């Protein structure tokens, strides 16, 4: 137990990490003041980290260096545009903040449309897959051979694509038995996909939980039993 009174910096950090871990996980019992205290600490640290990252990753290399190192003084005019955003806290002048906000929304809308077209248009082209096995034939334009297993996989992909797409056809009432059953199959396929996504989310949360338990057992517990609990 001699390690209980260790006062070195590493031990202090471990004790603080233990308190934060148990304080955050106290929410599993019920909402309490301890959890809210450490939640506010986390939010404050995250806000400070974002400020530092905003300067180190964006403002300093993309704004400060371009003005004072590269001599691109045109970037100086982004400063008053950015300062207009803080007028949103003024009841009298908050309308001026909408100038920058509107400009940013328009710019972001154009970027999102470009990203949407670049992402989903490629997916539409990639959905056209060969359904028959074929060897590589550069003369005929076939560079990637399609094996039997690959052709079966492409067929399954096509069936799933048709079923799921049919489920989202809301422009007409699905009275035809074939269309109705195809849409029902697409719904079940979506449920399977959502279940897999939910399962992967749970596994990610469990990985975080296991990491914190490992910290409590080996790092914090190693203070009391340094010769027993070693990584």
Can you walk through the features of this model?
By secondary structure, the chain is an all-alpha fold. It has 6 helices and no strands. 69% of the residues lie in helices and 0% in strands. The chain is extended and about 65 Å long. It starts with 8 loop residues before the first helix and ends in a 7-residue tail after the last helix.
Task: Please state the structural category.
Answer: mainly alpha
Shape descriptor reads extended
Query: How many angstroms does the end-to-end distance come to?
Result: 19 Å
β-strand amount: under 5%
Treating each run of at least 4 consecutive H or I residues as one helix, how many helices?
A: 6
Provide the low-confidence segments as ranges.
1-6
Report mean pLDDT, rounded to a whole number: 86
Quick one: biggest sheet?
none
The count of DSSP E runs of length 2 or more, i.e. the number of strands, is 0
Helix content percent band: 55-70%
Rg estimate, integer Å: 29 Å
Q: How are helices and strands ordered from N to C?
A: HHHHHH
Summarize, please.
The protein has 231 residues and is mainly α.
What's the arrangement of secondary structure elements?
Layout: H1 9-25, H2 33-68, H3 78-83, H4 94-126, H5 148-167, H6 177-224
Features:
mainly alpha; disordered N terminus
């Amino acid at each position: 137990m001699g390690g209980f009174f260790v006062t070195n910096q590493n031990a202090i950090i471990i004790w603080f990490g233990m308190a934060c871990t148990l304080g955050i996980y106290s929410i599993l019992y019920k909402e309490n003041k301890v959890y809210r205290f450490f939640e506010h600490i986390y939010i404050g640290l995250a806000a400070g980290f974002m400020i530092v990252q905003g300067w180190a990753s964006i403002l300093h290399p993309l704004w400060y260096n371009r003005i004072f190192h590269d001599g691109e003084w045109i970037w100086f005019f982004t400063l008053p545009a950015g300062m207009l955003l803080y007028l949103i806290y003024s009841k009298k002048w908050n309308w001026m903040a909408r100038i920058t906000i509107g400009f940013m929304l328009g710019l972001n809308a154009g970027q999102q449309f470009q990203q949407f077209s670049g992402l989903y248009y490629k997916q539409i082209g990639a959905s056209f897959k060969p359904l028959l096995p074929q060897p590589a034939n550069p003369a005929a334009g076939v560079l990637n051979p399609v094996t039997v297993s690959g052709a079966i996989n492409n067929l399954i992909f096509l069936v799933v694509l048709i079923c799921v797409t049919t489920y989202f056809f809301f422009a007409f009432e699905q009275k035809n038995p074939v269309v109705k059953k195809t849409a029902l199959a697409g719904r079940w396929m979506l449920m399977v996909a959502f279940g897999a996504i939910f399962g992967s989310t749970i596994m990610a949360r469990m990985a975080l939980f296991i990491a914190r338990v490992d910290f409590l057992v080996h790092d914090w517990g190693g203070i009391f039993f340094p010769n027993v609990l070693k990584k």
